[in-house]
Amino acid sequence: MSRALKWPVKPSVKPFAKLLCSAAMQELERQSFARLAVPSYAIMEAAGRELTRFVLERYQDAVLQGVLVLAGKGNNGGDGYVAARHLQARGLCCQVFALYPPEQLKGDAFLAYQAWAAVKGTTVYLEADVDSEFALQELFSDRGPGVILDAVFGNGFHGTLPERVKRHFEIISSTICSSTQSTVKPAACLPVVVAVDMPSGLSADSGESTAGVLPAGASLAIQCVKPCHLLYPAAALCGEVWTADVGLLPLTDALPENLLQALVVDENVVSDFLTQDFLSQKVFSPRDVIGPASHKNSRGHVVIIGGDPGKRGAALLAGASALASGAGLVTIAAVDWPPGADMSFPVPEIMSCEIYQKGKGRTTEDWSPEFTQLISRARCLVVGPGLEENEVNAALLRQLLEAAERLKLSVVIDAGALGLVSADSSTLLSERHIITPHPGEAGRMLSCSAGDIQQDRFAAVRKLADKYNCVVLLKGAGSIISSSCGKRRYIIPIASAALATAGSGDVLAGHIAALCCAGLDAEKATVVGSFIHAKCGEMHSAGSFGWRGLLAGDLAQACAVKINQLLCPEAITRLSLSQLSLSQPSLSQPSLFQPELPNAFLRRIV
Fold first, then answer.
1. Helices 267-280 and 552-567 sit at what angle, rounded to 10 degrees?
2. What does the buried/exposed string (b/e) look like for 61-75 if buried means 16 or more CB atoms within 10 Å of the residue's CB?
C-alpha cells in the first residue's frame, strides 16, 4: 500500500496488524525484556526516537515554531522526556511542562528526566495554582509552539483525569479553539497535538471517553494499535493513528492467542482471504473473476426468508445485494403472503416462493413442494430481513436451522430473526451460522442494554460467541467479528455515517451470503463482507457529496465493484464507469466507484 510519507510506519506482523489490550501489551513488554535481554530503558529510548522522527517528518514546518512536551510521571512521560532531548539535539526549541515534580518520577522515567536535565533542558512544573495557569496562557499568547506532545498518561491509565490535569488540558484546548476564531493568528500557526500512544485520559481497552481529554491531531501508537484507537467515541479524539515499531518481540512469537485482542482488517487481509480460498477451490481464476466454465448453479443459490407485509423492501435489498456480489440465483421465500398479492418483484432477477402450502399447518411437513426443493438446492440461507417476530416465524426458524444443519448450509441470521433467537434459549447454532446484531440487538441477546454493549464491545463479542457458538458480527463504528470458538477476533477499522441508512444491514447480509456461496467459510465471508461494506460507505463519505445521500440500493452495487477490484484490480482499473454495466449513477454514486480512493485511516495504522 502506498504511503503518504517517506517514513513508512511498519506493522509488527504482516499481513495482519494486531490490536492489543493493555494487559497484552504489558505481557509483550515483559517477554521482550526477558527473551531479548534488552533493558527496558532501551525501549523507552526507541519510543522517544520514533516520536522525534514522526514529528520531524510529519510536521516539518510546525516544529520550527517549537515543541511543547506535556510530561507525566510514568513511562509515557519518560517517552516525552526522551523525545524532548532528541528534538533539542536537532536544534529545535523544545521545553517540557511537567504535570508531576521530578521527585515523583521512578525507574526509566526518572532516568529519562535526568538525561534531559543533563543537556540543560527546560522543565516547568505545572502546579495547581494561578501561576501555572498563567504560564500556560502566556505560552500561547504570542506565537506559541507548533507541536504539543501529550505524554502525560498512556497504556496503563484507567479511571478519570485528575482535576489538576484536566484544568491544564482545558486551558490548552480553549486557547487553541479561541485561536482558530482569530484573524490575527493564521491557521498554519496553530499548534498540533500529538498523543504519545493515545490521548491522556483514554482507557486503552475501550472506546469510552472521559471528560477533559485533550483531542489529538495524531496519535503515535507504540508498537501496535489499541482498542481506543478504533472504537468510538474514543477514536474521534485520537486523530490520525500511526504505529511505531520500538523493537519488541513479534506478536506471534510472544503472546498466547487469548491475549490477542483482534486482527485489524485491511485490503491485504481481504485480498488474501479471497484469492487463497477461491483459488484453492478453483472457484475463481486469478485473472478471470468468474471462471469461463461457471454457470448460475455453480455460483450458488441464496434463499432469503423474510419480507413480511410492510417490510418487503428489506428482503429485496438483501436479494439484490447477493446477486450483485456474485450469487448465481436468489429466491425470496415468504410466509402468509396476502391473498391475491403479486409475488413478483421490481428486481426481475429475483425469484419468489411461498413457504407453506395453502390451507395447511405450520410444520416442516406443511412446507410447499417448491420450498422443500428450494432448500435442498440452496447453498446459503439468509433469515431475518423483514421478518416479524411472532410464533409462526419462531417455529419456522427452528425448522430452518434443523434443515440447514442436516444439509450443512451456511445461515446468515439477521434483523427479526435475531430477536427470535434471543427469545428461545434452546436455539442451537454452529460454526456455519452467522449472527449480525447491532448494539441494541446484541443487548437483547445478552440481557443487557445497548449502552452496556458499547462500554466493552470486545467483551460483548466474546460473550455472544460463547453463548451461541457461532460466528458473531457486532455491527457499528468499528465492527468486530468473532470466530465461532471465540479464539479469533477481527476489527474493521472504518466508521462511516453514510452507512446509517435504511437497508444498509440488509445489503450486508446479502453480501455475506454471496461470499458463502462463492466458497468462503462463514468466518472469512463475514470478515470480507464487513470490510467491503464499510469501505464502500467510507468511500462515499470521502467523495465530494459527503456522507449524506447514500441509498442502500446503491451500496449493493458498490460492494460488487469493490469485490471485483480486490479480485482482479488490473481489470477494474481499466474499466470506466459506463463499462461496468451498472445503471446510470445517481447523485449519491460517483465517489463509490473510484478504485484509487485512499483510505487515510488504514494507510496510517498498517
1. 70
2. ebbebbbbbbbbbbb
CA 219 distance to own-chain centroid: 17
3-class DSSP state for residue 254?
helix
CA distance 10 to 245: 7
Distances (CA, A) of 166 to 137, 178, 211, 567: 15, 18, 8, 49
Helix (H, G, I), strand (E, B) or coil at 370: helix
Task: Give phi and psi for 172, each to the nearest 5.
Answer: -65, -45
The residues near 123 (Cβ < 8 Å, ≥ 6 apart) are 71, 95, 96, 97, 98, 102, 113, 116, 117
Read off the C-alpha cell for 82.
526522551
Asked if pLDDT for residue 272 goes beyond 90, the answer is no
Nearest to 472 by CA among 511, 527, 518: 527
101 upstream amide cis, omega within 30 of 0: no
Q: What are phi and psi of 383, to 5 degrees?
A: -115, 120
Q: How many angstroms separate the CA atoms of 541 and 550, rounded?
A: 9
Per-residue cell: 257: 492467542
d(CA 14, CA 142): 46
Q: Count other C-beta atoms under 10 Å from residue 499's C-beta.
A: 26
Q: What whole-number distance in Å separates Cα of residue 599 and Cα of residue 240?
A: 11
Would you tell me how many other CB atoms lie within 10 Å of the CB of residue 333?
A: 28
Instruction: Look at residue 415 and tell me whether its pLDDT is greater than 80.
Output: yes
The predicted pLDDT at position 144 comes to 75
pLDDT band at residue 183 using 50, 70 and 90 as cut-offs: very low
User: For residue 218, which phi and psi values (nearest 5 degrees)?
Assistant: -155, 150
What letter represents residue 197's amino acid?
D
Compute how many other C-beta atoms are within 10 angstroms of the C-beta atom of residue 53: 15
DSSP character for 582? Answer: P
What is the mean predicted confidence (pLDDT) over 31-59? 92
533 exposure class (CB count in 10 Å sphere: 0-12, 13-18, 19+): buried
**Cβ count within 10 A of residue 585:** 16
Phi, psi values for residue 6, rounded to 5°? -65, -35
User: Contact 323/330 with Cβ under 8 angstroms?
Assistant: yes
- Cα distances from 472 to residues 106, 255, 536, in angstroms, run 44, 24, 21
Which of 108-122, 162-176, 292-306, 360-374 tops mean pLDDT? 108-122
Confidence of residue 606 (pLDDT cuts 50, 70, 90): very low
Alpha helices (H) in 258-388, listed in sequence order? 267-280, 312-324, 369-377
* φ, ψ for residue 434, nearest 5 deg: -125, 120
* DSSP for residue 265: P
**What's the half-sphere exposure (Cβ side, CA atoms, 13 Å) at 395?**
12
Average pLDDT on 489-495 reads 92
Q: Can the peptide bond before residue 233 be classed as cis, meaning omega within 30 degrees of 0?
A: yes
Residue 190 is predicted with a pLDDT of 74
